[in-house]
Amino acid sequence: MTASPIVTSAAPVGGESIRLPGAIGTGLARGRLEVRAFFRERQTVVFVFALPAILLVLLGSIFGHQAALHGVTVGQLFTAGMIAGGIGATSFQNLGLTIAAERERGTLKRLRGTPMSPAAYFIGKIIQVLVCTIAEVLVLVAVGLAFYHLHLPTSAAKWWTLAWVFVLGTIACSLIGIGISSLPSSATNSFPVITLPFLVLQFISGVYVPFSNVPPWLQHVAAVFPLKWMSQGLRSVFLPAQAASLEPAGQWQHGQTALVLAGWIVAGLVLCLTTFRWRSSRDG
Amino acid sequence: MNVMSNESAITVRGLRKSYGPSVAVGGIDLDISRGEVFALLGPNGAGKTTTVEILEGYRYRDGGTVAVLGEDPASAGREWRARIGIVLQLTAEPELTVSEMVRQFAGYYPRPRDPGEVIELTGLTGLEGRRGHQLSGGQRRRLDVALGIVGRPELLFLDEPTTGFDPEARRQFWDLIRKLAAEGTTILLTTHYMAEAEALANRVAVLASGRVLALDEPAALAGRALQDARVSWETPEGRRTVQTASPTQVVTGLAAQFGGEVPGLAIMRPSLEDVYLELIGADR
User: Does residue B124 lie in a domain region?
Assistant: First the structure.
């Protein structure tokens, strides 16, 4: 049997064994369309994709050239933090908002009525998040290099740290985003459920404000969530070694970072598997 | 055209579904043959949509047995979904074009129709590059239909497909349904338009309060063909109407009386709408 599904006969034949398109091929095709749709929609491009870069330029211009420590500028701290915020925006916030909207529009219900493999839907989302998040990181790194004396990692160990923080952080945030998309009863009230908590977390996790300026009790709150660990991990990549003394623990805590992110991946996966719905709550 | 046209496409026995204390479907039996066009009529809240959504596999039933193309929709898999088509009335994907949507959905099925052919069949020619948010209401409905038929379904579900159509668009839609029926597609539609049921359906069932009140060919529903006819004509004193079981005899008499042409002659049987309203009225 050949793989080509093209059949020219007009009459449907029921009993004949049919070969369904595979999840991977369909998922790749969906991913391409998802990326296109993301960059076509002005709202997501401005509020999800461009906002971190705009804020980085803004905050960096105001505070960026103050020295946080000998040889470390506030601009560098902001850049590392904002990359973590950008990853959160294109994974957590993006998936939370778009899936809530897709559920409300009935996109998911319609897909459920087709023979599309459910895995293909998630493969498409993974591709969209990966492409958009990598692009987001590149834009923010470029802003940091251009304006805030950001240094690219110089050792293989730092590149490796960048790689695993990016991968674990993106997966954790994506899964939580997919899970939380079931919470808003409609896309219009996704602000208090998705955007607001994300905004608050960015303030207390070292994205909009240097983490050492955050009061200790809020630092403890932030330490429960992935964003604080992602921004800390990225500071370890983009800042000189002495900057570790600015961290509450006085060190980069790579082991703990990996553990917290891995823990959230497990929790996020459980959340998705137990809460993901193809239909909206108002739809019965 | 269809080799199995004597087989049953849908078999329903004692179907029941309640939402809390309210009974939506209270014991329905249906037999729909392959190749048949079957219409479900009934007021809002009669249980039409619940019944159709159970047959589509979107809702689970409380009781009774259901076989759709030989399978139980509650447990049927992707192969079964490849053989049915569902036309849902939804908001289109705002940032994807008509062509991208139809092509994407074609990719979900093992033996899809040519996307270009589907676009032409549904009257979307010239709108291929139009994005979802740029489509008018009528154009969105056509896209809904295009996505429902692109998989070359053996059985097509249409829930109030022409609501909001202008008369011309409705006629074009009827032509499309007739074309699909001529190819052997079994069609189950719900509608509020009696003219639509009369124009398209081989048989209709009238539902009210979750039960089947009547089931027959549109021309014969509730003894419609056997009911008294009304013969009316113009006289110098005004219009006269007699109700009679033998209209031919009345007309022959009139013809003799007038010596040929009877002025303003009309013979009327109760319309489908008359019969429908009578059935629904008796149920209240």
Answer: no
Res. A17: pLDDT tops 70: no
Residues B27 and B71 placed together within one structural domain of the fold? yes
Would you give the distance in Å from CA A100 to the centre of its chain?
16
Please name which of A102, A222, B22 lies closest in space to residue A232, comparing C-alpha atoms: A222
| Poorest-pLDDT segment among A5-19, A54-68, B197-211 | A5-19
Q: What is the pTM of this model?
A: 0.84
Count of domains observed in chain B: 2
- The per-residue pLDDT for A123 is 92
Write the ipTM: 0.83
* Residue B99 CB-density burial (10 A; 0-12 exposed, 13-18 middle, 19+ buried): middle
Q: Residue B38 domain-assigned?
A: yes
Domain span at B248: 228-268
Condensed to tens digits (0 to 9), the pLDDT of residues A98-156 reads 999 899 888 999 999 999 999 999 999 999 999 999 999 999 999 999 888 888 998 99
A152 touches chain B (CB under 8 A): no
For chain A, domain boundaries: 23-272
Whole-number Cα distances in Å, A283 to A98, A185, B50:
18, 11, 11
The beta strands (E) that lie in chain B are given as 8-19, 22-33, 37-41, 63-68, 84-87, 155-159, 186-190, 203-208, 211-216, 229-235, 238-244, 266-268
- The B-side interface with A (CB below 8 A) comprises 1-4, 19, 53, 56-59, 69-70, 78-79, 81-84, 86, 88, 90-91, 93-96, 100, 104-105, 107-112, 131, 147, 151-154, 183-185
